[in-house]
Design a protein that fits this description.
The structure is a homodimer of 372-residue chains. The first copy, chain A, is α+β, with helices and mostly antiparallel strands and 372 residues long. Chain A has 2 domains: 188 residues, FAD/NAD(P)-binding domain (3-Layer(bba) Sandwich); 141 residues, D-Amino Acid Oxidase, subunit A, domain 2 (D-Amino Acid Oxidase, Chain A, domain 2). The first copy, chain A, has 8 helices and 19 strands. The longest helix of chain A is centred in the N-terminal third of the chain and has 24 residues.
């Protein structure tokens, strides 16, 4: 490894870090990525790949616009990955069926429906009977639902794999199994990153901190308070008797289709430190949650379960932009929206590095907002 | 493989078939075992290794005596396995804590307590508070319990592995991945078994049918009605924060200790044909069942889950003895008691083959009892 200098060193090889590395390598820079794990991102493991910015939005805000902007980059982003790798990531626009288990949940969905309808967003309000007509086998107890045709989903595990392959094709150098232990700075600039296994330093002109749940301690080593907490999300893969036609969701419990009658059932939101293992309680709550609205899953085969750690922040918004030193950029804290926001995040970080500022204001997401 | 003759051909390489093969090989016979699976027995996979003949017994009967007799053979049986293999199967006599979730269940446990106390069997009746004193972390809702100090358990997966190794050491020949397709008889004797992969026939002087859930169709090929049905049992392996000191059980839900803070949680009883996969519904019911009396398992780590097929009969008793042809012996249908009954079953089948009859009457378990 040595100390050969890159133009950009990205710390963190998840979806965010790799998307940034790809974008910069495509712009002609020499880019390296260091990642402690041999795996492709801890937060990705907590994702089922829903690109659903509408979700439970009742008031459009800046973050909603950010999310829609990034979602709309996806078709072009996936084309680019395909042109580099020859692999097409499984991507669908079949929508999401939001269902309500009782009248209280239906009132919440009605709020979503009214707010989004006023914004001319396409969605359909459904009675309990209409919901069951859309997908037979759903619970006869359902009070109703809302169908969101604009929602997309993709195979997030496949995306992670294809993205790394694309970045490698574009010339990005990956240092896997290597932990970034700290950043070494002089006056106003970071000069190198100290890494372990083997112990070494990696120099670069620019540094990007995209280490997800592990970003907090690294920022701390620079004296920046960045209260990012890992939020565990557990996930179950089932194989049903038939293909699921679209995403189905009731509150935090959802089903996302996968090829060959497989589906992902999720999830949990737990603050249990860096423990990314599946628990009896998590598995139970997911199975109970999804079988409550989709009792036909009782006979679905259990294939496997896993968990990932989403990087959460106090305001649940991501951390984007330069901080502390002029050549250090943060792209972390994406919480449950890392996959959705990856193409836009990559574009903005590339803008900062190549042009000094992004194409839109990202002030609300500046790293220093938790400093005081 | 060819058609080289054995003294005994055992069809089925699970715990029952392998125990029989070992016993006969130790008596000096040339023994072969055929098994379709590379794995060590389908019913064993549905077992947590409890050797608990007392269980919910309220009336001592012949089967209870059979079970106690076999359980008492275990220490010597495990010594024998150790002397052949150098491996000690993990075996404990720490007892079972039966717990009641409500007053109705407590009345059932009281019946067990009164019946077994009258028989001078050792057990202790416990209040809800005493139950929680025995094992902290149990549900505060528990109405009470009964502790059965006489109950044993062993590591059934380890037993399966060590038993095969012991049988191989004793000279038993295993034909794995080979299905028995039928038995070929002339006048009063079976002469050979037709097997697949590669297609061949295996001759022997004696045949033992120990094919568990697959025994029914094989018996059918001989014209014997043997209504054995696979009863699926699902099993979950967890890793808790501490070692479980003994078996804990509420009805069909139980926890059985394993080394290193692991434990098995079970189970289900499902008639779903030969489908031995884990289902969402099965996993959910087991986790719900055990967390109801042991809520501390919420944070236990999920390690893996699997299922097995117990061979069940209409009266739930095993099928033991000769039938149809004079040199064909049945040792199957052990339902939930295969591991418990293995050493005794091996002894009785050996008695039949070597001495013409077993050391006790097994008339109640004769294969022909379902014929009419």
């Amino acid at each position: 490894m040595g100390s050969s200098a890159s133009d950009v060193l990205v710390i963190g090889g998840g979806i965010i870090g790799t998307s940034i590395a790809l974008r910069l390598a495509r712009a002609g820079l020499r880019v390296s990525v260091v990642d402690a794990d041999a795996d492709a991102g801890q937060a990705t493991r907590a994702s089922a790949g829903m690109l659903a910015p509408q979700g439970e939005m009742v008031q459009p805000d800046d973050f909603f616009e950010l999310s829609r902007f990034s979602r709309d980059l996806y078709p072009g982003f996936l084309d680019e990955l395909e042109s580099l790798t020859g692999e097409r990531v499984d991507y669908h626009r079949d929508g999401t069926l939001l269902v309500a288990l009782d009248e209280t949940q239906m009132e919440e969905l009605d709020q979503v429906y009214r707010a989004q309808s006023q914004l001319k967003l396409p969605l359909e309000r459904l009675s309990g009977q209409e919901v069951r007509h859309r997908l037979s086998g759903l619970s006869p107890e359902l009070a109703g639902g809302v169908f969101v045709p604009g929602d997309h989903w993709l195979d997030s595990q496949q995306l992670a794999r294809v993205l790394v392959k694309a970045a490698e094709k574009a010339g990005v150098t990956f240092h896997r199994g290597v932990s970034a232990a700290g950043l070494n700075a002089r006056t106003s600039r970071v000069e190198s990153a100290s890494v372990t296994a083997p112990a070494s330093t990696l120099s670069a002109r620019h540094f990007v901190l995209a280490a997800g749940s592990w970003s907090g301690p690294l920022a701390q080593s620079l004296g920046l308070r960045l209260p990012i907490q890992p939020c565990r999300g557990q996930m179950v893969e089932l194989e049903a008797a038939m293909d699921l036609p679209f995403v189905v969701r009731a509150g935090m419990h959802y089903l996302v289709p996968r090829p060959n009658r497989r589906l992902l059932a999720g999830t949990t939101s737990e603050y249990a430190g860096f423990d990314s293992r599946v628990t009896a309680g998590g598995l139970h709550s997911i199975l109970q949650g999804v079988m409550r609205f989709a009792p036909f899953l009782k006979d679905a085969h259990f294939r496997t379960a896993w968990a990932g750690l989403r990087p959460d922040t106090p305001d649940h918004y991501p951390v984007l932009g330069p901080a502390v030193w002029e050549n250090l950029f943060f792209a972390t804290g994406h919480f449950r929206n890392g996959i959705l926001l990856a193409p836009a995040t990559a574009q903005w970080v590339a803008d900062w590095i190549l042009r000094g500022q992004p194409s839109r204001s990202l002030d609300s997401y500046r790293p220093s907002r938790f400093a005081s």
